[in-house]
Recover the amino acids of this structure.
């Protein structure tokens, strides 16, 4: 049987090949290789799309986070709240500035940062918070804004996985990255909007921060060869911007396809009878027993269906929780179906953060997620038959060995 990959970038490239190659050749022939008109076009398109006054094309999502923290003046010894269950860059950027990433546990339903836990970790040294819109699902930014107001926290949104994800704020629809002080995006090729290499974006509504970010992007230089601050080379390549300008008009269509796939997965898995009663990971402790019996899986919580925001979740990943996760993963792989574990080790257990002496017992949910999450293929080009095959294979796995212990 033909394999089902986690992502099919070849297929996307082939569909856009003529347009992309014209744009790439245009840049090559112009020899305007770094920043320039392609990057400026992308910036104005994406500022509007994200609902931010300003957007700046940068070298990667990681650099976006680093320069955002530099722009809000995070200093050695400052504390910044980050979810312990995220991609490494979220915490790495904080630590690289000599500041202290303070790890926050996750919520079982959305798998995003537990804001109540974050509140309890605030000290006089806490300067900022990095909400991560994990897997493409918008965080409850109203809660983050309240926390920020009450404690004077700077908000750096890590929207690397969630470009275009919407939420309601004060009765109005907004998009991630346009809510906090600075929004950070990644165009790594596997993201929903992917370049042909590394690229990223920062957004802000604050003119002063915007001017600082422009300087930081180019070694803190203004005017030429005069440096009032220390920045870096965080500039975006014109080739990446050209590719992104070609792809952008397709983005909302891709989001819709991913959402349709996610709904189909959830419906088919529920129909099959292998999902837990509640079918969602509401209360981890409550479900441990069911988990141990090994017959149930939990579906991602579809908050976007419960809000008036049209795209609360853009399904960068469709992630289930399941017992015997590793066994299931192997079973699927042997039948040609690729899956991935995002992420197997939370920050509080990473070797490089041992110096922070985090207490493992403070992170029951993140530890649970690290052992049980599994992301299924959900890329736009996936067919209905392929989704049915993935679900059918998962159902076979549970039916063939329903009582094994994990
Ligand atoms: C991908 C990602 C980043 C980093 O982006 P790069 O462009 O790969 O540097 C940061 N945070 C999260 C949550 C991500 O998924």
């Amino acid at each position: 049987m033909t394999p089902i990959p986690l992502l099919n970038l070849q297929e996307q490239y082939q569909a856009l090949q003529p347009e992309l190659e014209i744009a790439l050749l245009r840049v090559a022939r112009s020899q305007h290789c770094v920043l320039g008109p392609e990057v400026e076009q992308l910036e104005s398109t994406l500022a509007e799309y994200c609902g931010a006054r300003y957007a700046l094309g940068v070298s990667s999502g990681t650099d976006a986070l680093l320069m955002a923290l530099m722009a809000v003046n995070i200093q050695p010894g400052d504390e910044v709240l980050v979810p312990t269950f995220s991609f490494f860059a979220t915490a790495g950027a904080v630590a690289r500035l000599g500041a202290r990433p303070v790890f926050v546990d996750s919520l079982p339903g959305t798998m995003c940062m537990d804001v109540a836990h974050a509140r309890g970790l605030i000290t006089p040294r806490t300067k900022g918070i990095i909400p991560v819109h994990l897997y493409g699902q918008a965080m409850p930014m109203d809660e983050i804004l309240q926390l920020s107001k009450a404690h004077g926290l700077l908000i750096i949104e890590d929207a690397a996985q969630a470009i275009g994800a919407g939420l309601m704020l004060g009765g109005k629809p907004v998009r991630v990255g346009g809510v906090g002080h600075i929004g950070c995006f990644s165009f790594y090729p596997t993201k929903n909007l992917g370049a042909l290499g590394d690229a990223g974006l920062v957004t802000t509504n604050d003119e002063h921060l915007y001017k600082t970010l422009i300087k930081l992007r180019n070694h803190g230089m203004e005017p030429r060869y005069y440096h009032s601050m220390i920045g870096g080379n965080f500039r975006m390549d014109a080739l990446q911007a050209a590719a992104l300008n070609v792809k952008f008009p397709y983005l909302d269509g891709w989001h819709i396809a991913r959402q349709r796939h996610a709904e189909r997965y959830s419906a088919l898995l529920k129909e099959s009878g292998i999902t837990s009663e509640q079918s969602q990971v509401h209360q981890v402790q409550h479900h441990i027993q069911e988990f141990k019996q090994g017959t149930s899986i939990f579906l991602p919580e579809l908050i976007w269906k419960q809000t008036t925001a049209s795209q609360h979740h853009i399904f960068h990943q469709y992630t289930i929780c399941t017992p015997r996760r590793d066994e299931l993963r192997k079973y699927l792989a042997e039948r040609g179906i690729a899956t991935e574990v995002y992420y197997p080790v939370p920050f509080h257990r990473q070797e490089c953060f041992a110096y922070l002496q985090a207490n493992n017992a403070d992170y029951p949910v993140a530890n649970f997620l690290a052992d049980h999450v599994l992301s299924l293929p959900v890329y736009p080009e996936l067919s209905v038959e392929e989704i049915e095959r993935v679900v059918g294979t998962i159902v076979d796995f549970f039916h063939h060995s329903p009582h094994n212990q994990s």
User: Anything to note?
Assistant: The pocket of pyridoxal-5'-phosphate is lined by residues 60-62, 86-87, 89-90, 132, 158, 160-161, 186, 188, 198, 200 (CB under 6 Å). The radius of gyration is 21 Å. The chain is about 40% helix and 15% strand. The mean pLDDT is 92.
